[in-house]
């Protein structure tokens, strides 16, 4: 398989675009970690959620009060609230939350494992203005159920995806965390998705954090990662399904082959989050040491405007192997979720 040639002119234009986006830093995608409760116990969970969490769900009124400054700053319908967890469908008030968000001018969506997403819930959420859904499908049935540690997980996730794909008003995708057990299943999984009318697919690798930190079976070798990139590039040329590698890492020579645009870690630049305890951060996957404030004693937009420099000025990431890398200007040290804290080396690099 031949990769696309690098296009220096396009890469230069992209770096200008990224610099401008960073300078403007509009908050147009905000995660709300609404619960730590979960109805699964996945082997790779980064937050170690449990069925009965010792941390209470955040009251929706608290979150709504925190995001009021966004209504004054940005035009209606320009900011997306992505509701995550834990498993957001465990909240019985989820539709009410979504309806209120639409009334206040926010688009909203959910990140779900699909276990509770049936036709009744589907109709309820659509009526409340649901606009986007992300569902996980991590291999064929046996492999997916092994990772999710539930015998019905695959069938329920597939049921959810078929319902979601049948609703033309929804933006959606299926995400697959690629590991050693499911890498060889990707071609067969692709056919399952296509056969069920599912057209949008994102692939991730599993970061060595949370429960996955010491499970070597969940980590790909560099050769296996390159095999995954080749599969993505081949499938994109085939054109039967919209597939892409996630925003998790710079891929070097594969950048023009595996995603629609170049790698851009938007944590703290366009992406923020309100965590379960009120902490204000960026992508919810990044280390808690990068928290910038808390909604219970800080104004969200004041924090967004005047902090987050650690994510917008990333020269500090030029350390360890990044200090010697000839492509640092394109990568800027990789994704924030692969940094344990400021000044430490990156956990891994997928540059080829």
The main sheet orders its strands as: 7-6-5-4-3-2-1-8-9-10
Structural class: alpha/beta
Separate helix tally: 13
The run of helices and strands is HEHHEHEHEHHEHEHEHEEEHHH
Major sheet: 10 strands, mixed
Give an overview of the whole structure.
The structure is a single chain. The chain is of the alpha/beta class and 352 residues long. The protein is 33% helix and 14% strand. The protein has helices at residues 8-24, 60-66, 68-73, 94-103, 119-127, 141-148, 153-165, 186-195, 222-238, 255-258, 300-306, 309-312, 328-331; strands spanning 29-33, 80-84, 107-112, 132-136, 171-178, 200-205, 242-245, 271-274, 279-281, 293-294. A ten-stranded mixed beta sheet has the order 7-6-5-4-3-2-1-8-9-10. The chain starts with 7 loop residues before the first helix and ends in a 21-residue tail after the last helix. The model has no long low-confidence stretch (mean pLDDT 94).
Structure summarized in a few sentences:
By secondary structure, this protein is an alpha/beta fold. Helix 5 links the parallel strand 3 and strand 4.
Protein topology:
Layout: H1 8-24, E1 29-33, H2 60-66, H3 68-73, E2 80-84, H4 94-103, E3 107-112, H5 119-127, E4 132-136, H6 141-148, H7 153-165, E5 171-178, H8 186-195, E6 200-205, H9 222-238, E7 242-245, H10 255-258, E8 271-274, E9 279-281, E10 293-294, H11 300-306, H12 309-312, H13 328-331
Parallel strand pairs: 1-2, 1-8, 2-3, 3-4, 4-5, 5-6, 6-7
Antiparallel strand pairs: 8-9, 9-10
């Amino acid at each position: 398989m031949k990769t696309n040639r690098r296009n220096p002119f396009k890469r230069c234009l992209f770096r200008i675009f990224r610099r401008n986006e960073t300078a403007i830093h509009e908050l147009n995608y905000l995660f709300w970690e609404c619960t730590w409760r979960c109805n699964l116990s996945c082997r790779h969970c980064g937050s170690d959620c449990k069925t009965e969490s010792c941390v209470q769900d955040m009251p929706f009124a608290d979150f709504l009060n925190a995001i009021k400054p966004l209504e004054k700053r940005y035009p209606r319908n320009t900011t997306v609230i992505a509701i995550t967890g834990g498993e957001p469908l465990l909240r019985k008030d989820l539709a009410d939350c979504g309806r209120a968000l639409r009334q206040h001018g926010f688009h909203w969506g959910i990140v779900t494992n699909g276990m509770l997403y049936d036709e009744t819930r589907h109709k309820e959420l659509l009526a409340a203005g649901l606009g986007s859904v992300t569902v996980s499908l991590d291999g064929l049935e046996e492999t997916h159920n092994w990772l999710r540690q539930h015998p019905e997980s695959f069938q329920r996730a597939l049921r959810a995806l078929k319902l979601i794909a049948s609703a033309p008003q929804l933006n959606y995708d299926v995400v697959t965390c690629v590991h050693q057990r499911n890498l060889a299943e990707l071609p067969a999984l692709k056919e399952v998705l296509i056969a069920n009318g599912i057209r949008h697919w994102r692939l991730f690798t599993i970061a060595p954090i949370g429960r996955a930190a010491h499970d070597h079976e969940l980590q790909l070798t560099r050769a296996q990662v390159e095999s995954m990139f080749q599969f993505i590039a081949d499938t994109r040329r085939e054109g039967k399904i919209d597939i892409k590698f996630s925003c998790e890492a710079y891929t070097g020579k594969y950048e023009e082959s595996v995603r629609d645009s170049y790698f851009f870690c938007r944590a703290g630049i366009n992406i923020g989050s309100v965590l379960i305890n009120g902490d204000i951060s960026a992508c919810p996957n990044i280390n808690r040491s990068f928290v910038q404030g808390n909604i219970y004693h800080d104004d969200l937009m004041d924090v967004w405007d005047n902090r987050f420099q650690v994510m917008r000025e990333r020269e500090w990431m030029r350390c360890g192997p990044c200090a010697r890398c000839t492509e640092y200007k394109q990568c800027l040290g990789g994704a924030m979720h692969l940094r344990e804290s400021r000044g430490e080396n990156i956990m891994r690099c997928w540059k080829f």
